[in-house]
Each structure stands twice: as C-alpha cells, then as structure tokens.
Fold this sequence. Notes:
Blueprint: H1 38-45, E1 62-67, E2 82-84, E3 104-105, E4 112-114, E5 120-122, E6 125-126, E7 132-134, E8 136-139, E9 151-159, E10 171-179, E11 194-199, E12 207-212, E13 227-231, E14 243-250, E15 257-262, E16 265-271, H2 277-284, E17 288-296, H3 299-302, E18 318-328, E19 343-344, E20 349-350, E21 356-358, E22 361-364, E23 372-377, E24 382-389, E25 395-404, E26 412-418, E27 427-431, E28 436-450, E29 453-461, E30 469-477
Parallel strand pairs: 3-7, 19-24
Antiparallel strand pairs: 1-18, 2-8, 4-5, 5-18, 6-7, 8-17, 9-14, 9-18, 10-11, 10-17, 11-12, 12-13, 14-15, 15-16, 20-30, 21-24, 22-23, 23-30, 24-29, 25-28, 25-30, 26-27, 26-29
Amino acid sequence: MNVTSGTPHPGGARPRPDDRRRRSVRRALVAALGTMSLAAALATTATLPAEASAPTPPTGWTQVFADDFDGAAGSGVDTADWQYDTGTSYPGGAANWGTGEVETMTSSTGNVALDGNGNLLITPRRDASGHWTSGRIETRRTDFQPPSGGKLRVQARIQMPDVTGAAAKGYWPAFWMLGSPFRGNYQNWPGVGELDIMENVQGLNTDWATVHCGTNPGGPCNETSGIGGSTACTGTSCQAGFHTYAMEWDRSTSPEEIRFYLDGVNFHTVKANQVDAATWANATNHGYFVILNVAMGGGFPGAFGGGPDSGTEPGHPMTVDYVQVLQSSGGGGGTTPPPSGNRDAYSAVQAESYDGQSGVVPESTTDSGGGQDIGSLANGDWALYKGVDFGSTAARQFYARVASGAASGVSGLVEVRLDSRGNAPIGSFALANTGGWQSWRTVPANIGPVTGTHDVYLTFTSGQPADFVNVNWFDFGH
Length: 478
C-alpha cells in the first residue's frame, strides 16, 4: 500500500511485454497488477470461525510478537502493542495517506474493535452526509527484521471484507509493513522500503503482494507500482473465508530474498539481485513495523474501476484472527514449506509459486488470466514444487502452458522429475519458437503413472546455452 501521492499503485497492472531476451539484465520488476451499527457488525461476524491462538512456531523458529485479539466484544486494541493512525495523514505527511484514499481514520470502536471471539474488526463506515471513516493501526515496535543469516516470518489469518461486486467498490483492505526510518519522517518513501503482504481491492478474489523500494516515480523498483505479484484464494474466496497471508524475509540465502505466501504456498519472490545493492540496502538495513487497515478509494482501487460511490455498502469489516512474527536464527533450518498434499496435481500450479529454483526469473505475463510466468529458462535450470498430491488414481498426462521466442535452431526439453532432480524424468516434451516469449500454447506429454504425494521438479535441458522457454503454469491429468 504505497504511501506517497502521485501515480496510482495499480497492483495488478502489467508492463508491456519485452521480447528482448538479455538474460543478464532481465529482472522481475513487475507490478502486481448505509451505516451499520457496531452491534450488528459483531453479530454478523460472531458466526465466523476463528482460532483460539496463533499457531505454535515450527521447529527452528521463535515467536517474537503475536496478538490473538482476545478481549471483550466492542473493546479496542491493546495500546501497549498497537497505536492508532488517525485523521487523513501522518503529521506533516502526504495528504490522504499519500494514496488519494477518501476516508478519515479514527480510534473509535465503531471502526476498530474486538468481536469477543478472538478477532479484530476494522470496519469502514459512511455517515448520513456520505463521509467515510475507517481504521488503521500499526505496531509500536519497529524492529522486525531477520537476524544476520536468519529469517523473519510475518503472518496473519484474515478474512477480507465479505463484500463483492458493485457493493465493494472502493474497498482496499491491507496487511503490510513499512521500514522503521519512515516513522517520524514521512517523506522518505519508498527508499526505506515497504512490504505489502496482503492487499485487495474492489472485492476481487485476488491477493496482491508487493515490495516497494528505490525512488519514485520509476527507479529500480518500478514505482509507484513496485515489484509485485498476485494470486487467487482457493477453497473459499478471499472474502468468504479466512486465509493465512505471510511474508518470509530470508537472509540465509544468497542472494537474500523476500517471499510471499498464501495459505502456505509461495506465489511471489523478490531477490536482492533484482535491484542494485544500494537500493536493497536502503530498503532492508533496518527494522520494520506492521500495519493493518481498510482504506476507501485511492490509486489502487482507481486502477480497477474507481473509489466508493452511492452503491458501495459500508459496514463490512476486515476480520483478523491473529498477527504473528517469528524469527529463525539458523541458516539451514526453519523453512516453512507448503504442507504435504497442499498442491493439487489436477489444478493449475502457477509456475512462479516454486519452493526452490536455479536460474529462474519471475516476470509479468500477457497470457490469459495475467499474473506471472517464469522465464530465462535455459539448459540446467530447474524449479521445485513441493507436496503435489496425485491421489490414488494414477496421473498419466502432463500439461504445461509454455511460450518461446528462441532463435532459429534453439530448442530444448521441459522435463518432469519426482522427488529428486537426480531421478530420471517421468515425461518430457520438446519446444522451439512458438512465435514469441508471450505467445502461449498448452503442450501435453505422456508420463509414467504417478499416485500419492511427491515433490515435482521441472527441469530444462537443451543442447544450446540460450534461453528456450517460458512457463506460466502446469498440471496433470488421468
């Protein structure tokens, strides 16, 4: 959620495709593309499922902050942990919170309150004159960062405001972080860094995650859009149920990277080598604080149809079950992979949601559905997808959505291997130029029968060193 005025943050907007395949400089600098009473809001939300507490930290991790939002219905947040942002800007900061949003933030329990069932409600409201109010809170602590050689994980279990279509116009819920040098300065964005763990607009079933850094406008981080990615909520929509939104900032890897997760699946990763060293250092050599808010209107909703109007329904809260911050000090352990069976072999696995890789570059795609593909794929590159559940009926087909702008005479194999890159492929297909790096086709391949749950490796083999394929998604069939 960008905090400076200027070009709107069009979370899902896509840059024009670049068919110049210069592997050394290609970077994933993409842009993610009536008044309701408090009692009524609490009654509505009281039926939603909630967990009693934040989950126990996995082995190798230590909890450094958590709030389960336990307390009496209608009470405010614990001000020992949180502070309210009120009004329409930080003191001396950009007007309308720097984003063009139209609400006034308050500390009223009409806008920010516990529901008595272990949830926090942040509820936008509109008065009789049409003026909007809402809530925005941030942690008092500003020191959240990974230790040297370790990791930081920040996560929350959230149900977005349960409103869609025309009634959701202008809604902009967010769970995000700002670099500590911003507090008290309010003029040094985006250089000090911003990590958007979850953003949503207009009641769409989409979770956007973005890193902001560098200079505005433009700069190495493509501001004001930032380096972003997005994915859809599955099972239930983002609005219809709780989902877990998380960020892992990993200093145990080289290069350092920041990964974003939805329900345990990594869908967007930003690496230090995607920008120059000074930009990365300015954005990461300090702590961060956490923010929860629901804005109304502003640049991001504006990119998807505009701000609130007479058809927008007030009174739909963002519901937060818990916020938790974990640290892992060791370089070798503490990773939180997707649980076994988290991925369905027969539903599209987004290629950019890999759990490990070598030589892979996420980038925006113009393929149907938008989002990201993985590119710069050449001989020896690979991507890992953990916990793919094939079930008890054997899969015998592999399908991949691929594109190629490879030069004449350049081609290669897209191979599928199970559980180890050293295992023989269970299937593969060859690919040459399809008409361009964003000229997509779905290619099938026969595979040996597979049942059960496996880690899936896509490996790329070619007799030439040049890039030969992009992959948008893949799945399997019987």
